Structure formats: C-alpha cells, structure tokens
Amino acid sequence: MNCLLFGYGYMGRIRHRILRTHPDVKMITIVDPALDPATEGLDGSLLSPGEQVPWREVDAVFVCTPNNVTANLCIEGLTQCGHVFCEKPPGRSWEDFCRIAEAAESVPRHTLVFGFNHRLHPAVQAANAMIGKGGLGDILYIKGTYGKSGGTRYRESWRNDRRISGGGILLDQGIHMVDLLQLFLGPLTVTDAVLTDSFWNCGVEDNAFVLLRSEQGVPAFLHSSATLWKHTFRLEIGCRDGYLMVNGLLSQTGSYGREELVIGKRQFEDEALALGNPREEIVYFDRDESWDKEIDEFLAAVKERRSPTHGTLEDARRAMQVIRDVYALTERPGLSRRR
Amino acid sequence: MRSIQTTIVFPLSSVKPLDGQQRYRERCLAEARKALRRGVQWRRECPACALTLEAFGDVEGLDYVRCPGCGSLFLAPMAAASDWALALKEVTRYRQSKDAFHAGITQSRYENVLAPKLDWIQSTLRLQQVSQPRLLEVATPPSDVEELLEESGLFSEVVAIDEMDLVAAPATPEHPAGFFDGVLMLESLDRVSDPAALLRALSSRLVAGGLLFVTALVSSGFDVAVLGLRNLYLYPPDRANCFSRRGLELLLTRAGFTLLEVSTPGVLDVEIVQAHLRQIPSLILSGFERQLLAATAETQAAFQAFLQQHGMSSFARVVARKRP
After folding, report:
1. Which chain A residues touch B126 with a CB distance below 8 Å?
2. How much is the pTM?
3. Bridge partners of A188?
4. Which end of chain B has fewer surrounding CB within 10 Å, N or C?
5. Chain B CB contacts of A286 below 8 Å
6. Chain B interface, mutation test: which of A284, A285, A287, A288, most B Cβ atoms within 10 Å?
7. A82 phi and psi angles, rounded to 5 deg
8. What is the CATH number of domain B12-16+107-322?
C-alpha cells in the first residue's frame, strides 16, 4: 500500500514509525509544509513544496495535523482516496465532525477510522474482558480521571489556541476518556458539567468535570485536567460482583506510570475477615501495542474492504456529541458557569 | 506481557508447614536416592541456556549444579526416566496418604493454593477470549486438581497425563497432535528428568496459539536466593530442577512459546526464611536480612508486595502461547 501522511508532528512521527515497518506498506509520502526537508528519518518521502499530491497512487491517508485543518484534509482524503485514518479529535467542533460525516456518507465503500487508541491499551482491554459475564457482573458506575500538568510551553501550544484547536483539555485529551466511558457503557448523555480555566487562562478549559448517564441509567463521572501536576490516568469501574481500577498508562515518556489493572471481587463478612478490604489482584502490563493494533486494523479493513471494528464514525459521533453538549451546557465564554 | 501481584495472604502453616514436612522431605530424598542407585546420567548443560553447568553444593549428599548464565539450579545426577517416574509416583502416593502432613491441611490448601489457581486460569481464559478449551493436565498421577478442573465447568474436556509418560507416549486417534487448546503444568518442570523434552512433547499436543499454564519454584525468588541449598523446600525428586525466572522464560521461549504473563505472586518468601531461622538459629544471614526478619508485619508485607511487583518472589506462574 502507498500511504499519504498529512502532518509530521508528535502523532505523525508515531504513525510514520509504525507504517515504516508494516508489511503491507510499500511507500509513505509525507505532506507537512512546516517541515525541514533535511529532517532525519524521512528517507526522501517528504513531498516538496508546490508539488501536487499524487492522489492516484495513494491507497490510504493519515491525517495527523492540528485540529483546524483536520476536517478539510479528512474530506479531501475521503473524496480522493476513500480510506482515511484521522487522529482525534474528529475536528474542532460538532460542525467540523458533521462535515466529515457527510463526506463519508457520500463515498461508497469508504474506510474511516479515528485514533481512539486508548481502547486498545492492554489494561483497558483486560478490564473489558472482566465485566458482565467475564465474572464481575454489570457495571454500577464509572469514574475516569485523565490529566497532565501542562508545562512551561503549555500556553504556546496550538492545542490551547481555540482558533486552531476548537477547545481545551476536554476536547484534546478528555475525548479519550469520553470514548472509553462509552466503550464500557454505550451512548452517554450529559447530566451536568463544570469547566474551568482557572490556572492557564488560555481561553479554553483547563479542567472539565462532567457527569454522564448511560441509556440504562448507569452514572459516569469524568475529570479531564491540565492542572494535574502528577500525570494521571485512572479509571474506576464499580461492578455488581467486584471492581476494576486501571491506573497508569503506558506512554512514550512513561510519565503516566506503570499501566496496571486492579481486580477486586466483592466479599462480605461471610467470605473475608475484614469487610471492605477484599482480596485484590494487580495485573501489570509492560507492552503497549495499541498503536500497532490500531494501524493493523485500519489497513486490514482497507485491504479486506470491510468495516473497521473500532474508532468508527459512530464512535466519533458519540464522543463529539458529548463534547458538544458539555460545551453547550457550560457556555464557553464564562467557563465556570453552568445552567 | 503482564505480571501479577496479589493481596491474598495466608500463613505458611496453612499450606506447607516447615515443621510438618520433615518426614515428607526424608521420604522424598530416600526415593530419589533409590532411583539414582539404579544408574545415573550427569546433567552438564542448562536446558534453558545450553551453558555448561557449574558445581553449586549438595542437598543431603545429592549434588546440585547451577547455570552460570541464568542461575537455574539442577540436581546433578539424574536417573533413567522410568526410575525417576517411579520415584515421583511413590512420593505423590505418600503425599496423598493419611501419614503425610498434607492430610491435615487439605481444606486450607484448597482455599489458598488450588482455588486461586483456578481463578487465575479462568481470568486468563477470559482475557484471551478462550471459551471451553480442551485441557491437557500434565501431572504425576493421581492428579490433585483433575477433579476440580472437571467440576469447574471451564473446560469442554480435561485429560490428565503422567508427565513422565508424555515424552514417550504417542498421540492417539482420540487425542491427536494439536488437539488441546490448553496445557496445565503445576510444578512439573521442577521435577521431570528432562524439562526441555517435556515441553517439546506437550507442544506437539497443543493447537497453534494454544495456551500453556506453568507454575514453578524459582531460584531467583527471595527465599531460595537467600537460603540457597539450605532451603528445606528444595530437594529431589520434587525440586530436581529449580529454574530462575529468567531461565524459565528462556526455556519456554526456546520451546516455541510467546510469553503472555510472567508473575511471581508468592506470599510466603519472608515467612519461609523466618521459619528456617527459627529451625536453624545458626543460619548465616546478612545484616539486612536479619533486620528484615525482625521488622514489623507491615514492613514485611510491604517487602513481600515489592517482591511480587518486581518478579522476585520464589513462586512463579507463567502463561505462554504456542507460536504458530
């Protein structure tokens, strides 16, 4: 396959690294007008400024750009090639997303996958296997915390410039947690939300507190933050017969800590000596194959002309609906207000 | 790959009391000597690393050798397979008799040793999305767990086979090569005369992608590392082999398996060293080790949790998948 990669920033480099060693990939062409052609590791794959994109030779497109151009490139990729992998978020806004969805619907037999790789993290997959008939019974509630500390260059990042990004930490990082909550609970509606911009003052939220409810009435709570001075990923899932906690996340920098899944089974006084302190098993994971699995699945779907299994248009629609509703509820200009 | 820590806690006395097992140990050593008297071959090469083994010491006059690469320990002389099989059957028969200390702690062994193993297998099957597999249990007959496995409802079929027969026994029309979806080996690698041959044989019975469940005592674990051959739980024929964690990983990888889980969820390392010190007050231990043994229960529990988290307890369990 010949792959076209829009954007060679943080995510573009990750995708490029995987595509370079993928057995189905013959050639990669990179489009990034901001990139110095002398950048190491490009192997002459950078399209020169002014050169036309060789659409006829492209089998799959990867959109790894800032959010303000995501929708246009996605639409162009769908129209010209029909097979697009797009990083999250799927556009800056609900309107951007709808444009992408409309373009997808007009292209028969298209393949469109969005980069919700957290679903494929080992602890998340293991947690999913334990729920329901997996032994822990139905879910009673979920709480998710995902946050980072920002850092000295936080204000300079395009991610926090609303004109480019379309939103703050909820849209940027929090969308992964929204996707995970819907992976476990199905479609969610927003019950209440509070957004604040109390530390970074970038004009986009640096903290989002969102209360959600599933169609079956199961509550979920999400805290997405750019002021968690200790990088944190934590997912607490309470089930009828036990509980699960995903702590830490395997990442490039390792800053979210060792990825682990705590599995606890409900034990009352008749089964354990101390009520409220059941036996736990902690599973540690040391390999994140989520990036590879995501690309494997996308390329396999393209090759086999079938629908993808995750990161689908429907998954993206549900995530963007939640974010749209949170922003509407909290009226962005006065971030801390809510109706 | 994943590894597992557990908060399950139980005392040494509830599963393998040091005081109580002296008679069993003597019986084991006697049976091992009897088998070795019928003729021996000296083991010179590590089955995991293929390095030449080095002299390490002896357990009641029976020499052990050590791999300079992975640190695994092996009984140096080995009897013919048939003689070794007889010794293993004999000690198993004794262990299951009323005379052995095991008889008095059957229930607590079930709760603390066997039931958690079933939980482990069940969780792994769920994580690997394997439903109703056909399981081959490799054990010294009669198996301690065959009935439990059958009653669990986890498997569509459970077949137990003598670990010492598996190498020589051909596949049958009823159970042809590649028939089983899973193989369970509870400490078989610790006692068989040729661990590499056993792995080759069971691999041929497994379907490609099939799962292998292994438990073992490992020499890299705290109590074995501290006590060495003074460890009263280390004796033939049950522990003719004591792989290190690294050795176990290499052995399985070289036999065509991909490692899915390597854990050391043992809970007794510190207590085992403590029990040895009570029984052998002259035991030579470092200042740090003595300090640890004199510490509060909370400190010892934290240290035991550390051993689990970092793969340094002496009870190892492994899940591996047969490569296609």
Report:
1. 129-130, 134-135
2. 0.83
3. A214
4. C
5. 1-3
6. A284
7. 95, -10
8. 3.40.50.150
